[in-house]
Design goal:
Elements (H helix, E strand, L loop, with lengths): L9 H4 L3 H13 L3 H6 L3 H4 L19 H12 L1 H10 L8 H7 L11 H12 L7 E4 L5 E2 L3 E8 L4 E7 L3 H22 L1 H4 L3 H16 L1 H14 L6 E2 L12 E5 L4 E2 L3 H6 L4 H19 L1 E3 L7 E4 L3 E4 L5 E3 L2 H15 L3 H10 L1 E2 L6 H15 L9 H14 L3 E2 L1 H20 L5 H15 L3 H34 L12 H33 L5 E2 L2 E2 H22 L5
Parallel strand pairs: 5-10
Antiparallel strand pairs: 1-3, 2-3, 3-4, 4-6, 7-9, 8-11, 9-10, 12-13, 14-15
């Protein structure tokens, strides 16, 4: 598991200071000094920030801000390259020009020495390399930021592909993520327009993705799980995993000698059926999502090979997605409402697959959804670009400050990638028509007897559990109250104001009664000629009348001012 700790006072501990200084130096180099200043990093790095050259800058004056962030990510190394690749598929998080530029990031780095690969394999498998493999190519077939792949031959004669994790990569990623988390915390605190996107949450989700990618054991399990989905489907092939020569840092799989699905000319020269390959490839993706709820989340052309007889082979399961039944059904409802051009229902379904801090104006959302439909749906189905449609849907969500759930995003990403490959093989391909049977199946399954029976059984089970446990829970609550370990606090909005108004009215009524009593009492005293007299009128009565008059004027003024007595 990755060890990521929040940085509190990095200036006092100087933890990872060298790498932090390097990152900030690159940001200054590419013209992001204003961002560094806004984040107020000085108070955390103290004198460490003085080590950074703020004057040294690359020649980036003619480059756009998006180009400069792409160049900065490339120089920052593997962690930031992968972050950029993730952000390039999130138009709900970054502007369109940044999306286009970050998509250019390539996860290709020079290979590490064979001796390092040998040491890692031997350490992980607990045996000398020669005791595991009869041959092991020193030159890797491919090299990426996290690992590289070597061709080898097992003792049983099986030709395999051995993926070896780059030495020290886990520590590098941990340091970068820790710093990234700190920068995200500062951004959330000091940059208002970024705080909505919750950069801390983004970094945490990104860390989980990398953690899964760093554990080849998880990838092995994912491969075997997907293979189990298609046991009875002969046109789908998943390479075999050799568990006895695999570990968390070494993954040994069956070597696949096929054609990249994007190599159109090679497929044509080999007399492959491109239309059949297109249908099979999209059906594989759709089946994983809508039938199984577990899918390959990174189906780019390099991860899909074509084997003889138009068999589709999936590779590299470092990134997978899971979608539960409820989420799947909500997405289907959204797609169905869009296809039926029901803007009101579509707006409601968008809210069901997103989260928000403040509920948007539903009327305005419905209007924009209607405009969205008008741009995409009033044309022949084969002309509808599902990828572009989903891309603009993400932009619409961002406009209303709606956050797409990660599982929904991964699913949309996979569908978009597959459609792009399909249209390259078959320009007339219609993704909407191809996905219709899978969408219809999800809708039918809601009302299947088996589904209804399962829901009823689950409801009865939950009800029984509640009835069984409620008396015990109630006794426990009572016990805690008696022991004064549990108390209740409640408040009623507006109740204090109501009490204040009530007191004000009561005081005024009481005051009025006092005034009335003074008047009546004074009148009785005057009538009875109670001494001492002044010109035959009782002085006590006169004083009473004056007091009543003063108090009456006071009450009238208080009422006119809406004050309290």
């Amino acid at each position: 598991m990755l060890s990521i700790r929040k940085i509190g006072v990095i200036g006092r501990t100087y933890r990872n200071l060298n790498r932090y200084s390097q990152i900030l130096g690159i940001l200054f180099k590419y013209g992001f000094g204003d961002l560094v200043e806004t984040l107020k990093i000085d108070q955390y790095l103290e004198i460490g920030l003085q080590m950074i050259s703020r004057k040294k800058r690359a020649r980036v004056e003619k480059s756009t801000r998006a180009e400069r962030i792409r160049m900065a990510f490339e120089e920052l190394g593997p962690t930031y390259i992968k972050l950029g690749q993730v952000l390039s598929t999130r138009p709900d998080l970054v502007p369109p020009d940044f999306v286009a530029e970050l998509a250019k990031l390539q996860d290709e780095v020079p290979p590490f020495p064979f001796n390092d690969a040998r040491k890692i394999v031997e350490a992980e498998l607990g045996k000398p390399l020669e005791d595991v493999f009869t041959t092991f190519d020193e030159k890797p077939l491919a090299s990426a930021s996290i690992g590289q792949v070597h061709r080898a031959e097992r003792l049983d004669g099986e030709t395999v592909a051995v993926k070896v994790q780059r030495p020290g990569i886990k520590k590098i990623i941990e340091v970068d993520l820790e710093i990234m988390l700190h920068l995200a915390t500062l951004a959330e605190k000091h940059i208002e327009e970024l705080s909505f996107h919750r950069p801390v949450k983004i970094v945490e989700e990104f860390a989980k993705t990398l953690e899964r990618e760093l554990d080849y054991g998880i990838e092995s399990s994912s491969m075997e799980r997907v293979a189990g989905q298609f046991l009875d489907t002969p046109h789908v092939y998943i390479p075999k995993v050799f568990r006895d020569t695999s570990s968390a840092r070494v993954l040994t799989t069956e070597f696949i000698d096929g054609i990249k699905i994007s190599s159109v000319e090679e497929l044509e020269s080999g007399n492959y059926d491109k239309k059949l390959i297109t249908r099979r490839g999209t059906d594989i993706c759709l089946s994983q999502i809508f039938d199984h709820g577990f899918f390959h989340a990174d189906p780019h052309p390099g991860n899909i090979f074509v084997l003889p007889d138009n068999v589709i082979c999936l590779l590299d399961f470092g990134m997978v997605g899971t979608i539960d039944r409820n989420t799947k059904e909500r997405f289907v409802d959204l797609v169905d409402s869009i296809v039926r051009r029901d803007d009101t229902m579509a707006a409601h379904q968008i809210l069901k697959i997103t989260s928000w801090e403040e509920e948007p104006d539903l009327r305005l959302l419905e209007k924009d959804v209607a405009d969205f439909m008008g741009r995409h749906l009033y044309k022949p189905l084969k002309e509808i670009n599902l990828g572009k449609l989903l891309h603009e849907l993400l932009e619409l969500a961002a406009l209303y400050r709606l956050r797409i759930y990660p599982d929904i995003f991964l699913m949309m990403k996979a569908l978009t990638a597959v459609e792009g490959i399909a249209r390259r093989l078959d320009p007339d391909f219609d993704m909407v028509t191809q996905s219709a049977p899978f969408v219809a199946k999800v809708k039918r399954n809601r009302f299947s007897p088996k589904r209804i029976e399962g829901d009823i059984v689950r409801l009865i089970s939950q009800s029984y559990q509640f009835i069984h446990e409620f008396p015990r829970d109630l006794l426990e609550i009572t016990r805690l109250i008696r022991q004064q370990k549990l108390s209740f606090k409640h408040s009623l909005e507006g109740f204090d104001r109501m009490l204040s108004t009530h007191d004000q009215i009561s005081n005024r009524i009481s005051f009025s009664i006092v005034i009335a009593a003074l008047i009546i009492g004074s009148a009785l005293i005057v009538i009875s000629n109670t001494p001492p007299l002044f010109y035959g009128i009782s002085q006590i009565g006169i004083i009473g009348f004056l007091a009543a008059a003063i108090l009456g004027i006071w009450l009238l003024v208080a009422i006119l001012k809406k004050g309290s007595l």
